[in-house]
Amino acid sequence: MKQSMKSGFVTLIGRPNVGKSTLMNRLIGQKIAITSKKPQTTRNRIQTVYTDSERGQIVFVDTPGIHKAKNRLGEYMVNVAEKSLKEVDVILWLVEPVEYIGAGEQHIIDKLKKVTTPVILVVNKTDTVKKETVLLSIDTYRKVYDFAEIVPLSAMKGDNTDVLCEQIFKYLPYGPMFYDEDTITDQPERQIVAEMIREKALHALDEEVPHGIAVSIDRMKGRKGARIMDIDATIICERDSHKGIIIGKGGATLKKIGTNARFEIERLLECHVNLKLWVKVKKDWRDSDFLIKNFGYKDDNA
Predict the structure, then answer these.
(1) Integer Cα distance of 20 and 95 in angstroms
(2) Tag placement on the chain: N or C end, fewer CB within 10 Å?
(3) Rounded distance between C-alpha atoms, residue 236 and residue 233, angstroms
């Protein structure tokens, strides 16, 4: 092992919908974390791995957005996000290029003041505003916290993400890699497939429904002698009225979710996929510890 090699853990934090999953997918060059414009898209702590044969390895920990919890699932998500701040080598705090600091950002600043981990401020979505706005935003944040570095970038376009990687390596400890070079994520395939189906449901559904859905993979089996994967999955919702919305008129919405999800899953698994979807109602599952764990939201360190 070269002594110049560095390896460490980096967490991405920020308010919901600031682009954490988009940035992580961009940095590792493959889609692992699901993205949507709706809050609470990321529910689990997802680890993805960026390996550079010269510099070393960055293990990204994508956490749920830090927000005010309204139910047991919300509490679980916030606990996961806040606990990761003390367990990593570098914190990336993603913000949007705005000239004021809102209550949500102030809440995160208060949390950061309790940790000694170096914090890199990432001003995302620079492609959506003028350069002056980005500079004013940097100046605003610089006054409220002593950041190790500040990096403006566009996760969507990939602008300046190479600079971010350079800055991250600067703060990582020297040491061997945690994963072999081919590893991209610690998530089992079934979990990624379930999340891809949930992403397509988020895209297809009305505002009030997505928070109350989970996806469970009932069967995932490859056919002998053929490059075909049979997948049976169930979309869980909290109300009978939501079930009707998810299925849609004549099954149209469910069909759209299935078609879009199958396309993504085939790219991931590199084979043909036969996907069958069902919808079930489990009332108030987000307040049931048993059901939260049952649908894959496990806090291993709790």
Answers:
(1) 9
(2) C
(3) 10
Q: What share of the chain is helix, strand, coil (3-state, %, to 5)?
A: 40, 25, 40
Report the distance separating Cα 77 and Cα 66, nearest Å. 8
Q: How far is CA 60 from CA 23, 45, 81, 253, in A?
A: 10, 10, 13, 34
| Residues with Cβ within 8 Å of residue 259, at least 6 apart in sequence | none
Q: 254-279: per-residue pLDDT in tens?
A: 999 999 999 988 887 878 999 999 99
The string of pLDDT tens digits covering residues 63-85 is 655 556 666 766 766 676 667 77
Quote the CA–CA distance of 123 and 138 in Å, as a whole number.
7
Cα–Cα distance for residue pair 225/207, rounded to 1 Å: 43
* pLDDT-wise least confident of 10-24, 140-154, 178-192, 219-233: 178-192
Q: What is the Cα–Cα distance from 273 to 231, expressed in whole angstroms?
A: 7
The tokens describing 263, both together, are 């396309």
Torsion of CA 256, 262, 268, 269, to 10 degrees: 170
Straight-line distance from the first to the last Cα atom of the chain, in angstroms, rounded to the nearest whole number: 34
